[in-house]
Design a protein that fits this description.
Elements lengths: L1 H17 L1 H8 L7 H33 L6
């Protein structure tokens, strides 16, 4: 019973709280002129963050590879 309540709480957390901004974008902005641009702007923002983090990760990996400390046990 406890496990069922935990999964029910997780489902409620996502549907009732964490997805609210996306529901707002989907429902309220769908009929407005700028809704499409704002919705896609969120996707471009996520993509930009992903590219910046990937570039940082690759830079750090290159730094460790050049120092010879990569995969050192």
């Amino acid at each position: 019973m406890l496990a069922f309540n935990i999964f029910k709480w997780i489902g409620s957390l996502f549907t009732d709280l964490l997805f609210l901004p996306f529901n707002w974008l989907r429902l309220d902005l769908a009929n407005q002129e700028y809704g499409w641009w704002l919705s896609n702007g969120v996707n471009w923002l996520f993509l930009l963050v992903l590219i910046v983090l990937f570039a940082y990760w690759m830079g750090e990996s290159k730094k460790f590879a050049n120092e010879g400390t990569e995969d050192r046990a």
